[in-house]
Protein: PHP domain-containing protein
Organism: Waterburya agarophytonicola KI4
Amino acid sequence: MLENLASMGYPLELTYTESNMALGRPHIASAMVKAGHVDSTQEAFERFIGEDCPAYVHYEKFSAQEGIELIRASGGVPVWAHPYLFCGGKVEEVLPVLVAAGLMGIEVFHPHHGNNKVNRLKKFCQEYNLLMTGGTDYHGYDLEHPEKEKWQLNQFHLPLSLLEPIKEAAILY
């Protein structure tokens, strides 16, 4: 995407990196604002780096089963992130397919999961013997407006007891 933007006359230098953070489109969008190429990150996505926009780079996607196999082969624990934001089918229908493919957990606690959804996901975890996780989709500070951070790291104050089973599962595989 950086090459595409440069060839379109919008060169960028990405200087914000953390040692363990992969750079993604939000970082590119923030760099575009910082460089004065756009007025907002939303504009960057809408005009340049959103899907089907001129600088977007399509990538080959793989199936959920292939992703689960890759994660497990790497010693990781495959967890379905924010299942109620998934657009590929109903959770109740997709979950058994993912479990059969080797899914090991579900992100139960998420800002878009109200109490009813959290309780349903907890029941699924019990029914399918899955690990429970939680998150906020925290991707670091909004570089444009760091004071207006939408979600905070561990805003749910989840207990560390949720982490231990995940660590154990990673060791087993």
Summary: The beta strands are 79-80, 105-109, 131-134. The longest strand covers residues 105-109.
